[in-house]
Design goal:
With 371 residues, this protein is mainly alpha-helical. The protein is 80% helix and 3% strand. The chain has ten helices and four strands. The strands form two sheets. A two-stranded parallel sheet has the order 1-4. α5 runs antiparallel to α6, α5 runs antiparallel to α8 and α8 packs antiparallel against α9. The longest helix is centred in the middle third of the chain and has 64 residues. 21% of the residues are buried.
Length: 371
């Protein structure tokens, strides 16, 4: 009776006892987090330490703008110029204009940073999907090698093929198994890379729910070029600099006549900025149209890669028929299996490249580059 009571008490204590850290870790390791591409992007943005710093930089620019406006009011009330150019008064809003431009540019930098995070997360997510696709293809190749080996082994037992053929099929099968192990290791590395991009624990178990599929891309190229002229960071920054240089010229033009060196120097600066703006627009058009062409080329690569898979499957079927009919060699069959394997991997490579090029295109239209 005592033993029964003690046993019951022991079970009760174990049941109500809190989990040890080791037990918690074991449970945590069993948790699998489902993650779509959109969720991954949001998580990457939420966990970004760079964006936290960017928020602080924006707050600093806001303070600087408030300070500039405060300074301008002080000078205005006192009837004193905020500064001079060779002794002559500057525009009354020069300080606040510079601060406004700086704040605007800092906000654009933050959007640029978000797009970079989005690109990095998408690249890592597609990398993980691609690694899983590689594993699937490698397992499929191993199935083909195993099936081929089983047939050759039966034929060898019946005295229909040489021992050399049997050995070669065994070597090919071993190579296939090695490739599967490598593919499994690459999957682990790809998921760790994704977790790193998300600022999550590296060994967090993830189940990716977005399909490894070709994204849709439809756009008006000419309209996108026009949008880029007004939205890209590099053109906005250049235009802001142009406005400041133009203001500097107009301020000096009040005092200096066209025949003076200072007037001519300031006037040349304005002309130089206008020329830079013109060239910048040409570079933007070149950049966007180039990225558009890359997308079109990548789309064709997907179609070609898929066509090659169909041809490779048919080629393998014909090689196997030839070998079983005694008119082909085991090397030809192995080569056909390898060709199918490479063709299937080429499809996943082409899809990944295509999807990332679409993101790069939208980034070029809406954000441009930050120096």
């Amino acid at each position: 009776m005592k033993k029964t009571v003690l046993s019951t008490l022991l079970v009760f204590i174990i049941t109500i006892s809190p989990l040890s850290p080791y037990q918690k870790n074991l449970l945590a390791e069993d948790v699998i987090t489902t993650l779509s591409l959109e969720e991954a992007i949001n998580k990457g943005i939420e966990n970004s330490t760079q964006l936290t710093i960017s928020e602080l930089e924006i707050e600093v620019k806001k303070v600087e703008l408030s300070e500039a406006r405060h300074q301008e009011k002080k000078y205005q009330k006192a009837g004193v110029s905020i500064g001079t150019v060779d002794g002559f008064a500057l525009d009354a809003n020069m300080l606040s204009k510079k601060a406004e431009y700086a704040l605007e540019e800092e906000k654009l930098k933050q959007e640029y940073l978000k797009e970079n995070i989005k690109l990095n997360v998408m690249s890592a997510y597609y990398g993980a999907l691609q690694a899983e696709e590689y594993l699937h293809v490698t397992n499929s190749t191993l199935d083909n090698l195993q099936r081929n080996h089983d047939i050759i082994k039966k034929k060898f037992n019946l005295g229909m093929v040489s021992k050399s053929d049997l050995y070669m099929s065994e070597i090919a099968l071993n190579e296939g198994e090695i490739n599967v192990e490598k593919a499994k290791e690459n999957v682990k590395k790809a998921f760790r890379a994704l977790n790193m991009t998300l600022n999550s624990p590296l060994d967090t178990k993830l189940k990716l729910t977005s399909d490894f599929a070709q994204n849709d891309f439809q756009t008006n190229l000419n309209e996108d070029v026009e949008v880029a002229y007004t939205k890209r960071f590099d053109i906005i920054q250049l235009n802001n600099n142009y406005q400041l240089v133009k203001l500097d010229f107009e301020t000096n033009a009040i005092v200096y006549t066209p025949n003076t060196f200072i007037y001519k120097y300031k006037e040349r600066n304005v002309a130089k900025m206008e020329n830079l703006l013109h060239n910048a627009k040409l570079n933007i058009e070149f950049d966007i149209k180039g990225k558009y062409d890359e997308i079109e080329s990548a789309k064709k690569q997907i179609a070609l890669a898929k066509a090659n898979v169909k041809k490779a499957k048919e080629g393998l079927r014909l090689r196997e028929l030839s070998y079983h009919a005694g008119t082909g060699t085991i090397l030809e069959v192995k080569e056909a299996i390898t060709q199918l394997h490479n063709a299937q991997l080429a499809v996943s490579n082409a899809i990944t490249s295509y999807n990332l090029k679409i993101l790069e295109y939208h980034k070029a239209v809406n954000l441009g580059t930050i120096s």
